[in-house]
Specification:
It is a single chain. This protein has 512 residues and is α/β, with parallel strands linked by helices. The chain contains 18 helices and 13 strands. The model has no long low-confidence stretch (mean pLDDT 90).
Length: 512
């Protein structure tokens, strides 16, 4: 790529980054690149190119979360030769009239898509001066997510639109990838995998381990009671011919609940539909309880069951009055009082101890789905003298959370090795600037190939890394692990086909 005056070259772009940026400077491009291989730098190169070619134009970068927005703002500011006042972060906390003035003053804007969509709809912003729209984590550009609405307005309003979509994992379903391409008006797909020759020099090997644990007998007794209660609800739905089998997933039940909710209103609250809807809602709650028992443990399950009493809907009343649920809750409370927890906790303690013994300066990230599990893991590790900290999202209506400043402080402390272990919820998965770590531990497998790839992407960048999956035998853990495994394999096949199609198109053009 030609030398850019606006790019300060504090970081030397790699050949594959320049090659992708060269293409993305000319055509709407979907850039699919493994986590940690510099998608943001590609975006900066394209932004510099567009601002040099169209000096009176502006650039907009969208990201799904405020921490990501601020991260991109700092990176762009560090690598571009522009006045600091020309970089603008936009949030919903800034008054609309003030945002309207900022749109006039700035050149490069960073925001969540919801803020931009709202300002477009309310007439505070038009995109006719923008020459580049960058969409980070663009696999979200499906259905009614705000990305798609902003993109459509941009294409309509800008006289010189250019779109760059960035993602590490577009998904394992071709239809979804095609939907992302369509919604972003993509003309060119640039794909690099860890196996590509121009990428291999910049990555290291990742070692994968599956560590299995057994559910204790007391857990199996509780699960049997919950399974019986679930089966009764599923058999009712089966009798109504709403299910084809009692072997169903939470996702399928949620989809059915949505359909039944619409049907309930359409039939003027038909009592049969109401009964089916109630059974479905109860099945979802019981299914979730089983999931917590199998994959998380007693504390999260106890908090969930006791929390249901504060939300006494028809569905929760029906669940809590079921004799099998009452007995299961009694057994859960007994174990909770005794301090009995999931065997994963003891296993994770041994793993972390071994890693620190081998390398006292090791850096480990443990991912867990639930805040209650994160809290329990941190307390367990700290009780054994291990330096560990929570990394969770901002406060919800109930419970604690971390403010953005606190999140940044924790990441900085982790970066400078003030503690060994960061225990994170999903907030640590998507794009945050978490430094290279030695080991990533999945407290539970996740069924999403996108989330699995994002979690793993925290290691194996500049040195050999390790990824450990904790799996409870004979539970949903196993199903989730293999679900993500097969989805990712499908995704790799789709990406391989797309790469082959790209090469075939180029060859046809050269021969014509």
């Amino acid at each position: 790529m030609e030398k850019l005056k606006l790019f300060n070259y504090k970081i030397k772009p790699r050949a594959y980054q320049e090659n992708i940026a060269r293409v993305a400077s000319k055509k709407n491009t979907l850039c699919i690149l493994p986590t940690g291989l510099g998608k943001t730098l590609i975006a900066i190169l394209v932004a510099a190119y567009r601002l040099e070619k169209l000096p009176r134009s502006k650039v907009l970068m969208l990201a799904p979360t405020r921490p990501l927005v601020n991260q991109h703002y700092k990176t762009f500011k560090d690598l571009l030769n522009l006045n600091s006042s020309e970089f603008i972060v936009l949030t919903g906390k800034i008054r609309p009239d003030k945002r309207k003035n900022l749109y006039v003053k700035g050149r490069i804007f960073f925001a969540t898509p919801q803020v931009i969509r709202n300002d477009l709809n309310n007439g505070f912003l038009t995109l006719n001066d923008f020459s580049l729209l960058i969409v980070d984590e663009c696999h979200r550009s499906v259905k009614k997510y705000a990305y798609t609405q902003v993109v459509e307005k941009y294409v309509q309003q800008s006289p010189f639109p250019l779109i760059l979509g960035l993602t590490a994992s577009p998904g394992g379903v071709r239809d979804k990838i095609e939907e992302v391409k369509k919604n972003l008006h993509i003309e060119k797909v640039e794909i690099r995998t860890r196996e590509d020759l121009d990428v291999k020099p910049y990555i290291k090997r990742i070692k994968f381990e599956r560590v299995y644990v057994e559910l204790p007998e007391e857990f199996l007794e509780i699960r049997e009671l919950l399974d019986q209660a679930l089966k009764e609800r599923l058999e009712l739905l089966l009798n109504y011919q709403l299910l084809t089998s009692t072997k169903t997933t939470k996702k399928q039940l949620l989809e059915l609940q949505n359909k039944l909710g619409k049907r309930y209103e359409e039939t003027n609250r038909d009592p049969i539909v109401a009964r089916a809807l109630l059974a479905c809602a109860q099945a979802i709650k019981i299914e979730h309880a089983i999931d917590l028992l199998e994959t998380q443990g007693i504390t999260p399950l106890y908090k969930y069951l006791t929390g249901l009493r504060s939300k006494l809907t028809y569905a929760t009343k029906g669940v809590l009055s079921d004799p099998k649920i009452i007995e299961a809750t009694r057994k859960v409370k007994e174990l909770y009082v005794k301090g009995i927890e999931h065997p994963k906790l003891e296993k994770i303690l041994h793993i972390v101890k071994d890693e620190i013994k081998e390398n006292p300066r090791t850096k480990i990230i443990i991912f867990a789905n639930y805040r209650s599990s994160v809290e329990k893991i941190v307390k367990t590790l700290q009780a054994e003298g291990i330096e560990a900290k929570e990394f969770i999202g901002q406060a919800k209506k109930e419970g604690k959370g971390l403010k953005q400043k606190e999140q940044i402080q924790i990441l900085n402390e982790f970066k400078y090795e003030l503690f060994n272990v960061l225990v994170a919820t999903s907030v640590g998965e998507e794009g945050l600037d978490i430094e290279e770590v030695d080991t990533v531990i999945f407290y539970e497998p996740v069924p999403s190939e996108i989330r699995s790839i994002q979690r793993r992407g925290r290691t194996g960048r500049t040195k050999t890394g390790k990824v450990i999956f904790l799996i409870t035998k004979g539970t949903r853990d196993e199903g989730y692990y293999w679900s993500a495994f097969h989805k990712e394999r499908r995704m790799r096949g789709i990406l391989f086909d797309m790469k082959r199609d790209e090469k075939k198109t180029l060859l046809d053009w050269l021969q014509s």
